[in-house]
Design goal:
- By secondary structure, the protein is α/β, with parallel strands linked by helices.
- The chain has one domain: P-loop containing nucleotide triphosphate hydrolases (Rossmann fold).
- Helix content is 52%, strand content 13%.
- The chain has a five-stranded parallel beta sheet with strand order 2-3-1-4-5, sandwiched between helices.
- Helix 3 packs across helix 4 and helix 4 runs parallel beside helix 5.
- The longest helix has 15 residues.
- The protein starts with a strand and ends with a helix.
Length: 165
Amino acid sequence: MSCIVLVGMPGAGKSTIGVLLAKETMKDFVDTDVLIQVRANQSLQSIVDNSGYLTLRQLEEEVLLNLSLQNHVIATGGSAVYSDAGIAHLKKLGPVIYLKVSLEELKRRVQNLPKRGIAGRPGITLDELYEERCPLYETYADLIVDCDGKTPEQIIDEIEKFVGS
């Protein structure tokens, strides 16, 4: 288990923390949202607009199940936790770290929810998405990092202590 897997809400900082954590731990970095976009040759929002959010979730599961990585920090899409099989596969690669951010903080960070390619039912609000997903993140997490009020360095230190880097 040489990877570190980051999960959390859109706007939680998975990609930002992931890149910094990869540098700190001397690992490669991959963002599964980017892998989905490359595979589909379109943006996440285009996938949702053209084929629906369930198609995006299916593509995400396929990408997760096909990951064969070592020594990577993996930033997942916010909807990765909808795939039991995908999360089970990720857990074989390394610990799952939930970057927990309060709803209030997410509302400050995420101003463009309808354009972010969210794999949620049409018209879902950030409040509803938060209520639906947070229990899933908590269920699958090997470590929950409360990110509110912390610097990226503090978050990375907490993760490193957990994974033993």
